[in-house]
């Protein structure tokens, strides 16, 4: 599994993905780890199929007991079906996920980890020194959905927003936004159900300072490509299956 | 507590262990299904026994010898219903135990696989050092589950044998019932039909019990 150190100024952001060991037919995912002092949080730690590779990857950078928190943007299997495994290596950790999904997510196996239900309006957590904000992104695409914003690093983890479906092994960052659109279009048209939810999210996110946007699938956006993405998404018709 | 060798052996033997647990889970679920059907048949048998008792009452003194037999059938049916319901709980517990073992083995397997991805010796050493407590804990839990499974299986096996014996008795009593029915004059055809019904239901239960006993072979009970 590839690892990218995205940010390192006091605290660190790592992005893991492009796993060559992953079974061919499962969708490639980006997993994120933020390390701040002696605490680390995993964002969308992934499906059970990538657990081994993820475990090996994070242990190169942190001690296992330093992973104190998990975050699941929503309840899908590619996001958090590895929970039953993490539950056995991180017995004292907390899982932050929408209050809506507690009874559902527990189906993945959760006997030790504590479920911290995120209310609809979101909340902030502090690691050692930095604060992370869980920003509402409901109906994009899940009915209880959150993103993670790091004000200090100016990085937004945007879950399925900004996701692209591309062949394996592509670079980590968008290099040509216009070319990249075709890899994102269908995913957003079909998976995102609500134009109203989309506009609210764009309004909310435009108020943030974002240097890098990290979706859970596909390439990352940096610099002007973040604004390009917001402009493009704003004009896109979503929920096409209902038309 | 010592752990079973599957956790420290090769990937293929772990895959075998995982496959065996999967097979056990399916076998326990199959047993549970058959016991449920056996309990439904036992209810039908209880109803047939009650009908036969009513018929015996109507036949009066001619069928006096049948009263004891129909009471016996009734009692047997009640015992079978109770027993099949109790042992179905064993089967469900065994199924749950198997799923837990399956998940625990998968966890150990995934951790081992993760360790194998680490190329640098110091990373491997660090990973082993940090993850071994969780693997040990899982291994101990797996042994506890295996021990519990063993005792649950022995109970299940004994109880299945009990029902099997009940049903063998039921077959024998059905023959006696049929013979006694020949003494009941105009009630003979009806009572013979009842004896056949009870015999048929008994064989149906025996078949479910026999299938369940065959499924137990998957578990290699000593």
Written description of the protein model:
The complex is a heterodimer of chains A (243) and B (222). Chain A has 243 residues and is of the alpha/beta class. Chain A has a single domain (2-242), classed as Ribonuclease Z/Hydroxyacylglutathione hydrolase-like (Metallo-beta-lactamase, Chain A). Helices cover 25% and strands 26% of the residues of chain A. Chain A has seven helices and 13 strands. In chain A, strands 1-2-3-4-5-6-7 form a seven-stranded mixed sheet, covered by helices on one side. A six-stranded mixed sheet of chain A has the order 8-9-10-11-12-13, covered by helices on one side. The longest helix of chain A has 15 residues, at 177-191. Chain A is globular and about 45 Å long. The model of chain A has no long low-confidence stretch (mean pLDDT 95). With 222 residues, chain B is an all-alpha fold. Chain B has one domain (8-219): Helix Hairpins (Orthogonal Bundle). Chain B is 86% helix and 0% strand. Chain B contains four helices and no strands. In chain B, helix 1 (11-59) runs antiparallel to helix 2 (64-117), helix 1 runs antiparallel to helix 4 and helix 3 runs antiparallel to helix 4 (188-215). The two termini of chain B are 21 Å apart. The A-B interface holds A 1, 21, 48, 51-57, 59-60, 63-65, 84-85, 88-89, 91, 109 and B 103, 106-107, 110-111, 113-115, 117-118, 123, 126-127, 130-131, 134, 137-138.
Count the domains of chain B. 1
Order of helices and strands of chain B: HHHH
Radius of gyration of chain A, taken over Cα atoms and rounded to an integer in Å: 17 Å
CATH class category label of chain B: Mainly Alpha
Secondary structural class of chain B: mainly alpha
Strand content of chain A: 25-35%
Oligomer: heterodimer
How would you sum up the global shape of chain A?
globular
| Parts with pLDDT < 50 across at least 5 consecutive residues of chain B | 1-9
Count of β-strands of chain A: 13
- Give the uncertain stretches of chain A in residue-range form: none
Rg of chain B: 26 Å
CATH class of chain A: Alpha Beta
């Amino acid at each position: 599994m590839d690892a990218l150190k995205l940010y390192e100024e006091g605290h660190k952001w790592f992005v893991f993905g492009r796993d060559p060991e992953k079974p061919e037919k499962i969708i490639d995912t980006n997993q994120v780890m933020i390390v701040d002092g002696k605490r680390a949080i995993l964002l969308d730690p992934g499906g059970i199929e990538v657990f081994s590779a993820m475990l090996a990857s994070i242990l190169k950078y942190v001690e296992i007991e330093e992973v104190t928190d998990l975050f699941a943007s929503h309840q899908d299997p590619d996001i958090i079906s590895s929970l039953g495994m993490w539950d056995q290596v991180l017995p004292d950790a907390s899982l932050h996920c929408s209050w809506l999904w507690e009874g559902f997510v527990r189906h993945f196996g959760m006997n030790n980890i504590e479920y911290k239900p995120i209310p609809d309006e979101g909340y902030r957590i502090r690691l050692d020194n930095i604060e992370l904000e869980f920003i509402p992104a409901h109906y994009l695409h899940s009915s209880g959905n959150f993103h993670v914003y790091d004000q200090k690093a100016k990085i937004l983890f945007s879950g399925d927003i900004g996701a692209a479906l591309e062949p394996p092994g592509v670079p980590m960052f968008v290099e040509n936004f216009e070319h990249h659109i075709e890899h994102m279009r269908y995913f957003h048209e079909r998976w995102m159900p609500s134009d109203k939810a989309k506009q609210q999210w764009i309004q909310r996110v435009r108020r943030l300072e974002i240097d890098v946007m990290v979706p859970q699938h596909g390439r990352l956006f940096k610099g002007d490509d973040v604004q390009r993405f917001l402009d493009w998404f704003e004009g896109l018709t979503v929920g096409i299956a209902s038309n | 507590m010592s752990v079973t060798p599957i956790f420290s052996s090769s990937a293929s033997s772990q895959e075998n262990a995982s496959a065996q647990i999967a097979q056990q889970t399916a076998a326990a679920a199959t047993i549970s299904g058959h016991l449920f059907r056996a309990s439904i048949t036992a209810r039908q048998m209880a109803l047939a026994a009650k009908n036969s008792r009513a018929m015996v009452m109507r036949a009066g003194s001619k069928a006096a010898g049948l009263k004891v037999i129909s009471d016996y059938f009734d009692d047997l049916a009640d015992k079978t219903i109770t027993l099949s319901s109790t042992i179905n709980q064993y089967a469900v517990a065994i199924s749950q135990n198997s799923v837990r073992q399956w998940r625990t083995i998968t966890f150990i397997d995934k951790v081992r696989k993760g360790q194998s991805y680490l190329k640098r010796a110091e990373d491997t050493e660090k990973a082993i050092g940090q993850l071994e407590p969780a693997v040990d804990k899982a291994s101990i839990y797996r042994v506890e589950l295996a021990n519990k499974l063993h005792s649950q299986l022995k109970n299940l096996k004994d109880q299945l044998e009990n029902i099997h014996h009940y049903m063998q008795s039921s077959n024998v009593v059905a023959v006696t019932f049929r013979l006694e029915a020949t003494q009941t004059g105009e009630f003979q055809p009806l009572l013979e039909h009842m004896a056949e019904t009870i015999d048929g239901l008994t064989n149906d239960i025996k078949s479910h019990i026999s299938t369940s006993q065959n499924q137990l072979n998957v578990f290699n009970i000593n």
